[in-house]
């Protein structure tokens, strides 16, 4: 069972007691992988992924039967600065599309056999423009974390979290700039498709926000520069760690949320892998900072959890080979 938390200090305390991968299961997975009917390393990254997955599920013969995809939606006050090519009303419209089954993520979740949940967080009440004040009060931030924390089904065996929120690439860029430094333009991309002038303005807005809210703490950065849906993703990723549920990270915004957790403790993202490298320019640099190699690179930039949901198929393939293949002894094949 997940512990409850009613303060940010309690959230930090819970994460300080987060479990680690099962070393015995990992050793068993590695031993089994070495006995399967294939040359050593012939399945490449699939072998590493299967061993990682089994170590978190506590078995040398894992299975995937209950994936969960959660999409969180929120609106951002910083859109008043003109950083998006689309109005905030699109967030509400897309939530309706998710709930009616008409979005890309619905199709990919269904294909993966995943339960899909949608959580809209106060869409009629955007966060504060972070160039003027912190995006969320501590109470608002705590509520968003709690929403994500409670949204994870303890019975799921792999988790994908996605987002919808006009303006959230600006938020993610600001988070990355605050965490990793460099120039604001290094972390700022076109998002929904802003033109050249819009891109310059967006980078300026990112720089202003980071200059106003200088902090080295991951939760402070997330509260001041994030959005409710970004905080909820972080809450869900943290909850999955407590439950030993492996997580497939989606694109730039999801990884920005995860990066705030990574700042809290070494190894905080050991239960996660990167589902894909998105076309948002700074995502590659963010993945490098997180030490994550993407499973896919298909030029996706939709968000919603779409790239990670597609990567469930890769993870299923890795696990199916690991668990379903015969060993040399079982197959009566010489191992050389």
From TrEMBL:
The active site is at 304 (proton acceptor). Pathway: Nucleoside biosynthesis; alpha-ribazole biosynthesis; alpha-ribazole from 5,6-dimethylbenzimidazole: step 1/2. It catalyses: 5,6-dimethylbenzimidazole + nicotinate beta-D-ribonucleotide = alpha-ribazole 5'-phosphate + nicotinate + H(+). Its EC number is 2.4.2.21. It comes from Tritonibacter scottomollicae. One of its GO terms (molecular function) is nicotinate-nucleotide-dimethylbenzimidazole phosphoribosyltransferase activity. Pfam families: DBI_PRT (PF02277). It comes from the Bacteria. One of its GO terms (biological process) is cobalamin biosynthetic process. Catalyzes the synthesis of alpha-ribazole-5'-phosphate from nicotinate mononucleotide (NAMN) and 5,6-dimethylbenzimidazole (DMB). This is Nicotinate-nucleotide--dimethylbenzimidazole phosphoribosyltransferase. Belongs to the CobT family. NCBIfam families: cobT_DBIPRT, PRK00105.1. The gene is cobT. The keyword Metal-binding does not apply. Keywords: Cobalamin biosynthesis, Glycosyltransferase, Transferase.
């Amino acid at each position: 069972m997940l512990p409850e938390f009613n303060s940010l200090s309690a959230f930090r305390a819970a994460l300080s007691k987060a479990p680690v991968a099962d070393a015995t299961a990992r050793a068993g997975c590695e031993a089994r992988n070495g006995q399967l009917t294939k040359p050593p390393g012939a399945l490449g990254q699939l072998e590493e992924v299967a061993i990682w997955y089994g170590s978190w599920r506590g078995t040398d013969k894992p299975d995937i039967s209950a994936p969960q995809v959660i999409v969180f939606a929120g609106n951002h006050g910083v859109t008043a600065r003109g950083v998006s090519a689309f109005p905030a009303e699109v967030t509400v419209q897309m939530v309706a599309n998710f709930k009616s089954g008409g979005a890309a993520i619905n199709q990919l979740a269904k294909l993966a056999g995943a339960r899909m949940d949608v959580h809209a967080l106060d869409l009629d009440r955007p966060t504060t423009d972070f160039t003027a004040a912190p995006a969320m009060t501590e109470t608002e931030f705590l509520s968003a974390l709690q929403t994500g924390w409670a949204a994870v089904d303890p019975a799921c065996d792999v988790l994908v979290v996605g987002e919808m929120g006009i303006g959230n690439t600006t938020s993610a860029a600001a988070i990355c700039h605050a965490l990793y430094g460099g120039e604001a333009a290094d972390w700022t991309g076109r998002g929904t498709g802003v033109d050249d002038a819009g891109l310059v303005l967006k980078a300026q807005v990112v720089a202003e926000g980071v200059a106003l809210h200088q902090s080295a703490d991951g939760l402070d950065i997330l509260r001041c520069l994030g959005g409710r849906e970004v905080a909820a993703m972080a809450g869900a990723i943290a909850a999955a760690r407590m439950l030993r549920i492996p997580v497939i990270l989606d694109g730039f915004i999801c990884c920005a949320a995860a990066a705030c957790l990574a700042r809290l403790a070494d190894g905080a993202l050991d239960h996660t892998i990167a589902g894909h490298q998105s076309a948002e320019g700074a995502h590659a640099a963010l993945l490098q900072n997180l030490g994550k190699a993407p499973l896919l690179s298909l030029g996706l930039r939709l968000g919603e959890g779409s790239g990670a949901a597609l990567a469930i198929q890769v993870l299923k393939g890795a696990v199916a080979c690991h668990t379903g293949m015969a060993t040399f002894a079982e197959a009566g094949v010489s191992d050389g």
